[in-house]
């Protein structure tokens, strides 16, 4: 996006042997010739207005009860029904959803919440921040709409170290586990159990 002075692909991290995303890609391409590795910023990608199969879950104009995320009066609001989606997301042959295990205000932030990065913000005339489209309306139904449009082919969550907590601060916790599977809902449920939550208690 215009106005940003730092190229996130080029930033190096001392704690990770001064690696950068671009450096990893360059090293991968230099080490072999059978596959071309590339990177794309979905925030900056061209977008395609795409209908949600089945009509979608995120409701626009719903009456919020005001005491919890995504807590709306039943029967209020109309389905958004379509989303701007980065064209690269629709074009890839295989999509791997690769989050970490951590918590956030509405619950856990693993495979489904990781889809916050798939919203085609250029179509909404906004910068990379998703709050105006997702958070201010209905968080998890919006993510599930995006998952419905382009579900992941495989899911892989790193749980060696994760962040737990939200209000009042967070702390690091060592689960020392990797969660993998083809079904994103099943993988999300397993992740919730590993983190100590009952999946049925999460929206």
Description:
- There is one protein chain.
- It is built from 5 helices and 10 strands.
- It is 21% helix and 20% strand.
- Strand 8 (154-164) and strand 9 (171-173) form a beta hairpin.
- The longest helix is centred in the N-terminal third of the chain and has 11 residues, at 21-31.
- It has 203 residues and is an alpha+beta fold.
- The radius of gyration is 18 Å and the shape is globular.
- Strands 5, 6, 7, 8, 9 and 10 form a 6-stranded mixed sheet that branches. A two-stranded antiparallel ribbon has the order 1-4.
In DSSP terms, counting alpha (H) and pi (I) runs of 4 or more, how many helices? 5
Q: Quaternary state, please? A: single chain
What distance separates the N and C termini? 32 Å
* Number of beta strands: 10
Order of helices and strands: HEEEEHEEEHHEEEH
| Fraction of residues in β-strands | 15-25%
Average pLDDT, rounded to a whole number, is 84
Sketch the major β-sheet: 6 strands, mixed
Helical residues, percent: 10-25%
Q: What is the global morphology? A: globular
Q: Which structural class is indicated by helix and strand composition?
A: alpha+beta
| Rg, alpha carbons | 18 Å
Poorly predicted sequence stretches spanning 5 or more consecutive residues: none
């Amino acid at each position: 996006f215009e106005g940003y002075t730092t190229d996130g692909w080029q930033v190096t991290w001392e704690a990770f042997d001064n690696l950068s995303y671009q450096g990893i890609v360059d090293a991968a391409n230099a080490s072999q010739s059978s596959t071309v590795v590339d990177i794309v910023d979905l925030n900056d990608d061209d977008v395609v207005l795409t209908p949600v199969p089945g009509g979608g879950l995120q409701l626009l104009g719903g009456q919020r009860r005001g005491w919890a995320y995504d807590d709306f009066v039943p029967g209020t609001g109309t389905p958004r029904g379509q989303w701007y989606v980065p064209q690269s997301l629709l074009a890839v042959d295989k999509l791997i959803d690769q989050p970490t295990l951590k918590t956030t205000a509405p619950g856990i932030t693993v495979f489904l919440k990781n889809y916050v990065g798939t919203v085609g913000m250029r179509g909404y005339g906004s910068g990379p921040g998703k709050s105006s489209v997702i958070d201010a309306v209905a968080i998890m139904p919006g993510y599930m709409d995006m998952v419905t449009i382009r579900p992941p082919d495989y899911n892989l969550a790193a749980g060696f170290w994760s962040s737990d907590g939200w209000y009042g601060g967070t702390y690091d916790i060592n689960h020392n586990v990797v969660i993998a599977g083809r079904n994103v809902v099943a993988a999300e449920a397993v992740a919730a159990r590993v983190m100590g939550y009952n999946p049925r208690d999460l929206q």
